[in-house]
Amino acid sequence: MIEIEKVTAGYGDGPDILHGINLNADGGEIVTILGPNGCGKSTLLKTIAGFVKPRSGRVLLNDTDLTPVPANEKVRYHRMGFVPQSDNIFRTLTVAENIAMGARFLPKAERAAAVQRQFKAYSTLADKANRKASALSGGERQLLSLARALVSNPTVLLLDEPSAGLSPAMVHEVFEAIADIRDRTGMCIVMVEQNAFEALGVADRAYVLALGQVALEGRAKELLADPAMRHLYLGGEPEATVTTT
Length: 245
Ligand SMILES: Nc1ncnc2c1ncn2[C@@H]1O[C@H](COP(=O)(O)OP(=O)(O)OP(=O)(O)O)[C@@H](O)[C@H]1O
Ligand SMILES: [Mg+2]
Fold this sequence. Notes:
The chain is 39% helix and 24% strand. By secondary structure, it is an alpha/beta fold. It has a single domain (2-234), classed as P-loop containing nucleotide triphosphate hydrolases (Rossmann fold), CATH 3.40.50. The chain has a six-stranded mixed β-sheet with strand order 6-7-8-3-9-10, with helices on both faces. A four-stranded antiparallel β-sheet has the order 2-1-4-5, covered by helices on one side.
């Protein structure tokens, strides 16, 4: 569904942040992008979404070259949903108004029903429909930003750290919600994460970035068992004890 071919990208006239990235993601799978702070995960997601233009390489959706298409058109005409890493809700609007913002590109007659579908899926949000978004907990805000992206019925969902700042129990709940979206809708989900091991627990495949390049990639289950992953994320296996006599 999504194919990233040899993408190089950066900001303004600054240096390249991404160096020839290849990535693909299909419908019905969660692909997670992992890696240390500053390695280019968000930049890669923003490049797929169209907020950052590649300096070279291509971004394809269902074999159509969307490299030059800006983010707003990707949402509107190519059914891409994007949840940014931060500032992802309108704090002064109510929960219902936030979700309705995501429905603004739908035909007018369909908007109300689309918002109701999200309330049906997320009762926590329905219970607080008329509250200001600023009054929600961190986890509820993540659910709200998810619902706002889902209301337009995307086929591709791009999530930048949906579990950021959540307690372990809430991390689990948000990941369950994301897995449920995959299973119910067959959507293609690309998710940047810091919680590497939890993300691998729910994802189908993963890419580990380092310094703007793909350092490791594979099936999530295999990466979970890969000593190189443990080395990257847990500071390595204990050294074998060498005994000299
Ligand atoms: N808007 C911007 N303008 C200029 N440089 C930027 C911009 N956004 C990010 N960068 C730089 O690009 C590099 C990669 O940043 P990016 O946000 O993609 O990393 P990340 O892997 O998502 O990190 P984190 O885990 O902290 O979210 C960093 O060196 C950062 O300083
Ligand atoms: Mg980031």
